[in-house]
Amino acid sequence: MGAMQTVTAVAHRGDPYRFRENTIGSLRSALDQGADAVEVDVRLTRDGIPVLLHDETLERLWKLRRPLTALSAEEVRGITGGGVPTLAEALAATGDSRVMVDLCGRVGRRTADRVVDVVRRSGAGDRVYYCAGAEAMLAVRAADPAAEIALTWTTHAPPRPALLDAIRPRWLNYRFSVVDRDLAARVHRDGRLLSVWTPDTHRSMRRLLDLGADSITTNRIGLLHALRSQDAYASGRPAVRRRERPRQPGCPGPPAA
Q1: Which of 84, 142, 235, 251 is the most buried (most CB within 10 A)?
Q2: Would you kindly state where each structural domain of the chain is located, as residue ranges?
């Protein structure tokens, strides 16, 4: 069975070439275009509410330099006109689709507990999985022994066995430029799935598919879905079909860096 038919297509911060990243409109647009999952960046407000924001401040997307940790969730809502959703709102807006929660910044047990609690209260535990570096994923594992984890790793050298035993990741999550045939083979040989981020060209996606990547996170979800569908058609297999979702208004903005 070829990689093109089995790869999970993950939309990086939604559909950032069409909508402002990490907004409800961006997430819904990505799912409309065939994403199997959406990746969202999560941080806590001053009052401990998990919201969708990649940066430490609102400056890049919302022209406000104040750090998120200095603002309450209600203040963020007022400043952005509701443009920065809470994690609970994002989970409600994505229906039964998979959500990859990337925990940004320094993540300790308090942050992990708050995020895991929202996921549980939303009834989304069976469709949410978490990604970030080792410190954050150790905190998530402590908060939820059953959590599905994609450990983000940045070097070709593998994680230490003791670290893998402590985190128990289902996925290893690599920047796409690090991945070669030997690394892909090692991840699979060790019984884990290979996740990569964030190739945005036809050539880079094709290379990763040929290497056997199990999941690709991209800013150009429409291109990845088209590649997957083309190969499915060529092989005589049915292409993945998504439910139609109503179009939602959103704020245009720059793609993720």
Answers
A1: 84
A2: 3-235
- 3-state SS, residue 55: coil
DSSP state of 188: H
Residues of the chain short of pLDDT 70, as ranges, are: 1-5, 232-257
Are the beta carbons of 11 and 256 closer than 8 angstroms? no
Contact 215, 8 (CB under 8 A): yes
Ramachandran assignment for 199, one of left (phi > 0), alpha (psi -120 to 50 degrees), beta (any other): beta
Q: How many CB atoms lie within 10 A of CB 156?
A: 12
Q: Pairing relation of β-strands 57-58 and 149-153?
A: unpaired
Q: pTM here?
A: 0.90
Domain at 3-235: CATH code: 3.20.20.190
Joined together, the tokens standing for residue 237 give 């297999």
154 prior amide bond cis, ω within 30: no
d(CA 140, CA 114): 10
- Tokens read off for 191: 């019984």
Contact status, residue 223 vs residue 213, Cβ threshold 8 Å? no
The number of beta carbons lying within 10 Å of the beta carbon of residue 181 is 11
| 157-212: pLDDT as tens digits | 999 999 999 999 999 999 999 999 999 999 999 999 999 999 999 999 999 999 99
| Cβ proximity of 134 and 104 under 8 Å | no
| Neighbouring C-beta atoms of residue 178, cutoff 10 Å | 12
Q: What span, in angstroms and rounded, lies between the C-alpha atoms of 31 and 97? A: 8
